[in-house]
Amino acid sequence: MSMNIFRLCGDMSHVFSILVLFLRLRVAKNASGISLRTHELFLLVFLTRYTDLFTTYYSLYNSVMKILYISSTASIVYAIRAREPICSTYDKSQDTFRHVEFAILPCVALALLTHLITGEGRGLDLFRNLQELLWMFSIYLESIAILPQLIVLQRYREVENLTGNYIFFMGAYRALYIVNWVYRAYFEAGYRHHYVVYFCGVLQTLLYVDFFYYYFMSKRRGGRFSLPTQG
After folding, report:
1. Residue 137 — very low, low, confident or very high, per pLDDT cuts 50/70/90?
2. Long-range contacts of 194-201 (CB under 8 A, 24+ apart)
3. Which of 27-36, 76-85, 122-131, 159-168 has the lowest mean pLDDT?
């Protein structure tokens, strides 16, 4: 994947979102308003997408970013699950999205179906075929991985400042990647379009639209960031 300013800004926005969440956990020393299930889904996304980490070298930047995403997300999952006093403050009763039934399994089915229809793994050996299948699964799963977190925020309504900033930068990362695809399509010779990736990227960005609206409204008013009541 070639580098341009939009991809670089997207990657930096993603990294910054992780740093903001680490700061949030370190300063507040609690996981109130944070969805463990979202981060478990993101960890699964990175583990299934970056299976080429130890088999194919692209660049130092590429390898460092992959390791950073996997290790940092695993650290967040560990902190919420097992690190005191953070784990004691995690409210499992608010984080109830059934991610296995409504995220992981449907994405497995969609990845298998897409893999069969498009013939992405045709002509590849068994290992490369499996890599392509897992990559497709990760694309589908990433598009909805933020859902448990957005549901948790809706239930809490009052959004802590660092938590809001973390989610904002996560959404900005995906929006910038859409601009990156448009840029590459116009200026990169031989660029290969992948419409499933486009669809999933747009879907993921659309999930943030409501959050973005209230985020910017709260910044403009200068008051506390809160979401409207349901219904």
Report:
1. very high
2. 196/114, 196/136, 196/139, 196/140, 197/139, 200/139, 200/140, 200/142, 200/143, 201/143, 201/174, 201/177
3. 122-131
Please say whether the beta carbons of 36 and 96 come within 8 A.
no
Contact at 8 Å (CB) between 147 and 34?
no
Q: Please, which residues have CB within 8 angstroms of residue 17's CB and are 6 or more apart in sequence?
A: 165, 166, 167, 168, 169, 170, 173
The answer for residues whose C-beta is within 8 angstroms of residue 87's C-beta and 6 or more apart is 31, 79, 80, 81
CB-based contact 41:103 (threshold 8 Å) = yes
Q: What's the whole-number mean pLDDT along residues 111-122?
A: 81
pTM of the predicted protein model: 0.92
Domain extents in the chain: 5-226
pLDDT at 231: 46
Q: Are 145 and 103 in contact (CB under 8 A)?
A: yes
pLDDT score, position 60: 94
Is residue 18's pLDDT more than 50?
Answer: yes
